[in-house]
Amino acid sequence: MHAVVRRALATVIVVLALPAAAGAQPGVGVKAKTGKGLYAAYCLSCHGVDGSGVTSTSHPPGVLDVHGLGPPLKGVGALAADFYLTIGYMPLADPHEQPRHTKSPFDDREIAALVAYVASLGKGAGVPHPQPQRGDISRGLSLFTEHCAGCHQVVAEGGYVTNAVAPPLHQATPVQIAEAVRIGPYLMPTFPASQISDSQLNSIIAYVQWAKHPDDRGGWSIGRIGPVPEGLVAWLIAATALVGCCLVIGRRFQR
Fold this sequence. Notes:
Layout: H1 2-23, H2 28-42, H3 44-47, H4 77-86, H5 108-119, H6 137-147, H7 149-152, E1 159-161, E2 164-166, H8 174-183, H9 198-212, H10 227-254
Antiparallel strand pairs: 1-2
Helix pairs in contact: 2-5, 4-5, 4-8, 6-9, 8-9
């Protein structure tokens, strides 16, 4: 009798333990649950419950004249969440200011949890996996000049546009560059695969990676900050040389 009771108790304990063991398995589900808590603490006030967004007419309109504190996140997928979190754009102290590339307050595990939770809110694009080693640097230079240099400069050092700053790309990782191209953060336009294919994107990233440490065979790089200071330096040297030549010629005539 006692043996039967012991076996029954053992069976009950095993059955009760199975759901707990299943729930303890690592995976997106557990990350999403952890991310939900982080979302409630750091993101809910701007993006709303379950990523529904927060609108407000009492605040001045933000970029593109959009009223509100935070856009809805349903359907943005892991791609947008990973970009904004890894690059330090979110959480944002003032939702009406342009986000800047800073160190994220979250560690890698917390970012993965938040990304998993945002991705669970609706169907959306996943984190891209670019392969710049398969790209062509010269082709990437041509594509970057055509699509990106107007704002970021051809050497990817950043620049100024109307009411915004195009950031330099020397700190951006290949994944972050690929994500930015696809989502178009802030005032940057979105480039779908129909405009820039994955193969072309690999070449663009390859060029940006090369531009971080280029081979300055032409001589003094002057910090690679663009043609204006380079032109000023050239004119300064040329003007000094011309004045020197004039002085030498003048002294000869005086003799």
